Amino acid sequence: MTLSYWCILIAGLMPVFTIAVAKYGRRDFDNAEPRAWLDKQTGVRRRADYAHRNHFEAFPFFAAAVLVAQQVGAAQGQIDSAALVFIAARILYTVLYLTDKPSARSAVWIIGYLSVIALFVIAARA
After folding, report:
1. Which regions span the lipid bilayer (predicted)?
2. pTM value?
3. N or C: at which end does the chain have fewer Cβ atoms within 10 angstroms?
4. Which residues constitute the domain of residue 58?
5. pLDDT tens-digit readout, 12-25
6. What CATH number is associated with residue 96?
7. How many structural domains are present in the chain?
């Protein structure tokens, strides 16, 4: 399995981490209506939920880009490098989201987004 495929797995697990942060330690968590409960949260819990949602939004575009690049036989080193940039950006994005640094978070989000576009460019040049 290639490094970029491992990155797809890591990206798929990121929402689990952030939702755990949102829910951790709260005895009043309502598993019958988790979204309504999460909507009432504030501070780091709310930001963790928002990061959780954003991970789900970013995942399909990234996974598709890796799969397309792999399918067309693009250079594996380039695919892996772009995938690692995406994962690093998403990890930093999460830290910046949880620590309430919106401007830096947005800049890092752009880096992650550009890494996905780079994957499609890499595929197009193969």
Report:
1. 6-25, 56-75, 81-99, 106-124
2. 0.94
3. N
4. 3-124
5. 999 999 999 998 87
6. 1.20.120.550
7. 1
